[in-house]
Amino acid sequence: MTSAPLIDPLLLTTAIEAVVRAGDIQLARFGRAMRVDKKGTIDLVTEVDLEVERMFRALIAERYPDHQVLAEEMGGSATVPPGPCWVFDPIDGTTNYAHGLPIFCASVALEVNGAAQVAAIFDPNRKELFTAELGGGAFLNGRPLRVSSAETLVDAMLVTGFPYDIHSRVEDIVGLFGAFVGRARAVRRLGSAAIDLCYVAAGRLDGFWEADLKPWDIAGGALIVSEAGGRVTNMTGAPFTSRGKHVLATNGVIHDAMLHVIDEFRRSRAPNRTD
Ligand code: IPD
Ligand code: CA
Ligand code: CA
Q1: Which site in 5, 124, 178, 194 is 20 to 30 Å from 269, CA atoms measured?
Q2: Which residues of 140-178 are buried (b: 16+ CB within 10 A; e: fewer)?
Q3: What is the average pLDDT across 263-273?
């Protein structure tokens, strides 16, 4: 008999501590005047993003000085490093945060050779802590999570997000959005990819797609969805990697139907493609 390799429980404890501490900092500063800079035309960074990331880097440096860190504001290895690497988003939903809209979280995953082992995502507004360990299931505040059982797109509520370069390719992004709006019960856009993924894991939403994501947006949430019984691939159906940029995460049942809509839309935009 073979058994799954044991994951050191202190890793998940550290992940949880990081996102809960992040939530404390986020809430303490939320709705107050703060410095907001632009990384691009519509891509913001607040002083709180930086403060939370500094806290996280100090925590990992103290506890795991030989582990790598990849986080949004101060970077990290451009390719998957060998061994353990913490992938962290100090605020997922920065645009919401900067506008005073209470939909944001912190997200972390510990990857080993690019594969997530543990994940924690904390929404401080709702006090919702989503966690997962590879092979150990997914949980919301300690209760087991399970994806929905919606069987068809017309019975499904979907969610997506828009990339920061959307101004230069509105037709592509909104065209696919329209294709799903024309088939699903409803489509939402919450502004936090990590929360989108947690809601798929919790069965509140049935499917999530988005192009042009970064590892810190999706590394934690993808593990939480798959540990809740869902299916996670990229948008062409190939295996998920957090560095793969695009993601499709569903309850599993509607996955192929969503892949079909994406494929149909791509072919309609580029009729001669064969991939
Ligand atoms: C963004 C959010 C948003 C998604 C963007 C992400 P940020 O992350 O997850 O929902 O649509 O693609 O970049 O910038 O708030 O950390
Ligand atoms: Ca993010
Ligand atoms: Ca962020």
Answers
A1: 194
A2: beeeebebbebeebeebbbbbbbbeeeeeeeeebeebbe
A3: 84
Query: In 3D, which of 194, 263, 195, 205 has the Cα closest to residue 230?
Result: 205
Cα-to-centroid distance, 214 and ligand 3 (Å): 9
Of the bound ligands, which one is closest to the alpha carbon of residue 101?
Answer: 1
140-166 tens-digit pLDDT: 999 999 999 999 999 999 999 999 999
Please write the tens of the pLDDT for every residue from 91-107.
999 999 999 999 999 99
Report which bound ligand comes closest to the CA of 91. 3
- pLDDT tens-place string over residues 199-224: 999 999 999 999 999 999 999 999 99
Q: Which residue type does 265 have?
A: F
53 touches ligand 1 (CB under 6 Å): no
How many Å apart are CA 109 and CA 112, to the nearest integer? 10
**Residue 170 to residues 1, 89, 162: CA-CA distances in angstroms?**
53, 26, 9
25 CA to centre of own chain: 20
pLDDT on residue 176: 97
- Cβ atoms of 14 and 67 closer than 8 Å: no
Considering every ligand atom shown, identify the ligand nearest to the alpha carbon of residue 95 and give its number. Answer: 1
Q: Which of 123, 143, 112 is nearest to 19 (CA)?
A: 123
* 99, 205, 217: residue to mutate for ligand 1 pocket, most atoms within 8 A of CB: 217
